[in-house]
Amino acid sequence: MLHKQRAINRCLRRAGKKTPSPRIQRVRRRGGAGRGGGGSSDAAAPPLAAPARWPTNLRSGSGAGGASRQSHGRLPLYLQLDQCSVSQLVTGTSRRRACPLPMGLLPQLTVEQRLPKGFHLLRWEVLSIWTGDRLEARAFRLALIQLHVSSVKSDNLARACGLIWEAAKQGAKIVSLPECFNSPYGTKYFPEYAEKIPGDSTQKLSEVAKECGIYVIGGSIPEEDAGKLYNTCAVFGPDGTLLVKHRKLHLFDIDVPGKITFQESKTLSPGDSFSTFDTPYCRVGLGICYDIRFAELAQIYAQRGCQLLVYPAAFNLTTGPAHWELLQRGRAVDNQVYVATASPARDDKASYVAWGHSTVVSPWGEVIVKAGTEEMIVYSDIDLKKLAEIRQQIPIFSQKRSDLYAVEAKKP
């Protein structure tokens, strides 16, 4: 059946390019050679990755031929395929029936970034040929730096950059600092330590991200902008560019009689936008501390394709024992994502004593790694294949009753 070839040929003709001849290669389960044996030219060509499952609407998916195709992973291998964009492939195919991209092909963001706006269902049989070998789930190392924060900003910055270097040497690809990593946490400190972005703190983070070639989630700092103060997290890419700036959405205003009273709103203003950024591994959603208590934020991030949520946070000795791990596990299970929290190290002499215990939780709700209270780096290898398996086993996203309820963002 050459319906895929015809679809691609139509795209190439529209683009004024020469249409290639198809070659069929049999890809055996354990990497066997093509029909021509070990010495054939087909056997030397790199095979496309077999999809996680075959769509039921393939014309050859039934009878003896379909069984053979499913058993041996019989895939067409097209020449000059990179001459076609995904937009051309998807819009050019004559097959109107569509089915969702299998969860085994991750990260989905690679597809989303290259599809025309508004495509939620993908014409699987064409798209999987173009990008199947590029969407294999990857594992990567995440590092959380549980920094001891002092009253000397320059010391905090120097120690933070040194620990980022150490994490990078241990293979970390994404590194997160804690909330308020460059200043003590407290309403009286925010105006004193506030700086603009870009500024001294963010410039140093940009430099170390570029030197190490990694993604740096800059915890948070007090940011001054147009006469207002914000609790802000800046993220830098491997080339040192500022990827996103997240301002804490939900301000920490609580009153627990006899234990703790705190009002961030005395000095800080809330942010008003969602913050995600893309990596070669997955899409990451950002929150800061108190943001984790609001399930809707995590749900919106999951809807937008995030597979890892990172919350630089500074819980205290009242809320930490009761809610720290509970909230992380809840957000992880509800949305089938990895959740990471980066806390400052505990300083019992500080006016605000942080809980510590920086943590990473899996989509199954398991605590993968958990720090103590002292300054340290914790590492976790984020396995996106495991995430895909969990979503296949318990497919809550396809089971949601959108006819009865919905969580929707009111801003982009």
From TrEMBL:
Pfam families according to UniProt: CN_hydrolase
Ranges where the record places region Disordered: 1-69
Matches recorded under InterPro entries: C-N_Hydrolase, C-N_Hydrolase_sf, Nit1/2_C-N_Hydrolase
Biased composition, class Low complexity, residue ranges: 41-69
Compositionally skewed regions (Basic residues) per UniProt: 1-17
Molecular-function GO terms, alphabetical: omega-amidase activity
Keyword field: Hydrolase
CN hydrolase domain boundaries: 140-384
EC numbers, comma separated: 3.5.1.3
SUPFAM superfamilies: Carbon-nitrogen hydrolase
PANTHER family for the chain: NITRILASE-RELATED, OMEGA-AMIDASE NIT2
Known catalytic reactions: 2-oxoglutaramate + H2O = 2-oxoglutarate + NH4(+); 2-oxosuccinamate + H2O = oxaloacetate + NH4(+)
GO cellular component: mitochondrion
Enzyme class: hydrolase
Presence of keyword Hydrolase: yes
Lineage, opening ranks: Eukaryota, Metazoa, Chordata, Craniata, Vertebrata
Protein name as it appears in the record: Omega-amidase NIT2
